[in-house]
Amino acid sequence: MRLYGGDIFVDFCKISKTLISKKGNLKIEEVKRVLNQLHKQKIIDYKPKSNFEQITFIIPRANNNYFSLKSNDIKKRKNIEKLKQDFIINYLENEFRCRTQIILEYFDEIDYEKCKKCDNCKKNNLKKLDRNYKKEIIKCIKNQINNPNDIINTINIDNKNLIISNMRTLLSEEKIKIKNHMLFII
Ligand SMILES: [Zn+2]
Description:
- This protein has helices spanning 17-23, 28-40, 64-93, 99-106, 119-142, 148-154, 160-172; strands at 13-15, 44-47, 53-57, 176-179, 182-185.
- By secondary structure, the chain is mainly alpha-helical.
- Helix 1 (17-23) packs across helix 2 (28-40) and helix 5 packs across helix 7 (160-172).
- Zinc ion (ZN) binds at residues 98-100, 114-115, 117-118, 120-121.
């Protein structure tokens, strides 16, 4: 094909089996066999002649539209890959959103309740509790319950450690102070 250029797609083209056999490093018989085979497969129209053989390609050469369509396909595929990548990054890096919701959103389901089971749901729920306990502690101190043990007993909760950690946080934030084992608001 490279020997005879684009004309070979349009019209019969004289070919030399000798030249083809030399270029392709094939025996003349082999070239003849391949040409006949291609003719049988209707890929070329092969007309043997005494000195010069003639062939033309029956299957049209792919035009540019075909290639641009292909590049569109590649673009589409790249976009899909990008969306998938963004989704994975969002899923991994998001520290606040419910992970089940993120996944369901990916499948276009947006009206879904938080799962309350994923790490983000648990963490955020804990944060909410944290805030509440801080408020509760401040409320107790304002009501003159200054002894930490009294505060712990006043706030009705199973996890006493959560109250203690909240007290520590309030102390470190300098929102409360401790004096003679009693807590006061600053
Ligand atoms: Zn969740």
